[in-house]
Amino acid sequence: MVRLVTYSLSHLNLSPHSHRIQPRFSESLFHCLKFIFLALVLILPLSSCKPIPEAPLRIASNTWPGYEPLYLARTLGYYQNSQVNLVEMTSASEVIHALRNHTIEGAALTLDEVLTVMEDGYQLKVILVMDFSNGGDVLLSKPEISSLTQLKGKNIAVEYTAVGAILLNGALDAAELSARDVNIIACSFDEHQACYTQADAVVTFEPNRTNILALGANQLFDSSQIPGRIIDVLAVHSDALDSHPKALEQLIKGYFQAIDYFKQKPQAAAELMKARLQLTPREILHSYQGLHLPSLAENLDLLRGETSKLEEIASELSIFMHERRLLSRKVSVKALASDRFTLEVNP
């Protein structure tokens, strides 16, 4: 039997010394690999052409009427089928912390808060001017204090921010007083009402303003007396302009759509806003009397140019903050503003 097998193998020429079948195997393998290679060449370009979807665009803010058009846009469905994700936070400090940690791409902040973040080396771009405070920021006093001059020697609660400093500085200038003539008490936004009960006066804004006035407070000074000094903006990390262009475009378009809705149907808009702001529709509409919401045309005027008007305002604010030790150094605001996304909005 062994000899038979050996004989058969020898006739088939499959002995260890035979190489006739090896070339056939190598040629077959070569054709197989060639086919796989050609398939990959054809398939890979097709798969690489498929666009990579943008990650969610996270935009944060605390509660403030000037920021509310963003949330109105969300309620009205203007951000459906988009990557826009609005993140609601309790205070500006929390928002700034998230911006520093890159857990959000952008935020609605006052311009001085933007400069505070940039002081630490973060690269930010302002892509929207949301409001100018025109009476929305106020100095409220106890009922027995009816004039600014009566504040001499009194305790005034204020946030340790440029907005608080600007408002208080304006009020003291109007009374021909200085910071040395009063006792300044640090007070965060979420404690304004409590601070009012413990101090003689408080620097605050909506919605706290309405609630404190209901306690019998007197309004001694407001931001309409220092026009153009307090500004709220939408700022994003610089790299977000290229990583989230579509979502940012939708964000800005939806914002201006909401502004149009508010102008055309103010009562209906206020009804939609009341739950978040925790104010009545009447109080909401009254609060907007203390704000100027720049139009699309105004935004383009503020943001465009090699040295934009917004950058000029920011430069002056940086000097003011540095002089009052709210910044350790003057912050460069060169190329801070970008009109890239406002230009995409149809008037």
TrEMBL record:
Belongs to the bacterial solute-binding protein SsuA/TauA family. Coiled coil: none annotated. It comes from Shewanella psychropiezotolerans. PANTHER family: ALIPHATIC SULFONATES-BINDING PROTEIN-RELATED, TAURINE-BINDING PERIPLASMIC PROTEIN. Gene3D superfamilies: Periplasmic binding protein-like II. Keywords: Signal. Pfam families: NMT1_2. This is Nitrate ABC transporter. It comes from the Bacteria. SUPFAM superfamilies: Periplasmic binding protein-like II. It is found in: Periplasm.
